[in-house]
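Homework help board

Subject: predicted structure for assignment chain

Our instructor gave us this sequence and asked us to write out the predicted structure in token form, then describe one feature. I got the tokens but I'm not sure how to describe them. Can anyone check?
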Amino acid sequence: MITPDRIELSDADTDLLAQASRLMSEALDRSCVHRIALVEEAEGNSGFKLEVPPATLRLLSQILALMARQQTFILYPESSELTTKQAAEVLGVSRLYLINLLESGAIPFRKMGRHRCLLLKDVLAYRERMQVNSRAALDELVRASEALGGYDL
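My token output:
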């Protein structure tokens, strides 16, 4: 069970997070390395060094940027089971629309009594398929419009 934690930030905290996110992004844009080290410099102490892959730092940078803007976000492990309400929020659709998708077989689910449970990875896979289909449909509309001279002025 994942419990939500809300973090209240001061203006100084949000400024610090925004700066950290920006600096991480800039470092990642200039780097082609396989590991990045985060180093604590301390007077008289040896400090510590933490090495992470760039993808980890990129994700951390995105999280810090969201926190700096005081936007609400939720992190779920990929193996998490979601309720229909949670899955609908991930997809940005109504719960009723999601239930219709489930009943049509578009997304796998299991029932526990009267409740439906969905794996986050299945919900994300469906979202990715829909985004690919949407992009393809939009590309087709652009091609059709170009063929009809829709972009000629």
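Reply (TA_rk): Your tokens look well-formed. For the description, you could write something like this. The mean pLDDT is 85. That's the kind of observation they're looking for.
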